[in-house]
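Collaboration report, partner site 2.

Our partner group contributed sequences for two proteins of shared interest, and the home lab folded both. The records are reproduced in the order in which they were received, starting with the first partner submission.
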Amino acid sequence: MSIYVSNLSDKVEENDLKVIFSEYGYVKKIQVSLNQKTGDKRGFAVIEMATSTEEVAAIRALRGIDLMGNSLKVNRAMTEYSI
């Protein structure tokens, strides 16, 4: 399971997300989505934490918080294997 975070400010950096999500466990990977042609941030990221328990805790705690003027949308990431 991974976490999908959207409604990100274009000022948010990977380290900003790591600091916030690390409060709920070990962050294994963060991927901030970029436009391949322009390099501009696309407003969302996928975060993988060490355990599903940590991911659930982070989702519950961080959904709707304000980060750099934007209210975060934090959900379980959908995968091609999800129904």
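Second partner submission, folded after the first:
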Amino acid sequence: MRHTSIKNTRINGEVQKELSRIISREIKDPRIHEMTSVTHVSVTSDLKECKAYISVLGDEQAKADTLAGLQSAAGYIRRELARSINLRNTPELTFYLDQSIEYAINMSKKIDDVVKSDEEGQA
């Protein structure tokens, strides 16, 4: 496993914060769902590439539309990122759909259902 330096961790955090701000406040694309959040950002150590993991609260169509809207606005987002963060290089952005929040909610519901049926079986 690769060791992440403190500098790279700070860069990831700053890029994540700025991406969240840019997506929620500056992009006016109707395809991008209003309940879109940036869950994780991974910038390479040479600052050439950035993987941004996003979570969309909505149906499958909203997720697909949001991902398409973000990919088409990647140039604009990169330019705004360059204006707000002073980095040696501004990374190329690639957006990925993060479904970990939905997975956690689904597993929590399943656990609650099992506990509930277990309690009903003992009563």
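Feedback sent to the partner group on the second submission included the following. The beta strands are 36-43, 49-56, 92-97. The first helix runs from residue 6 to 26.
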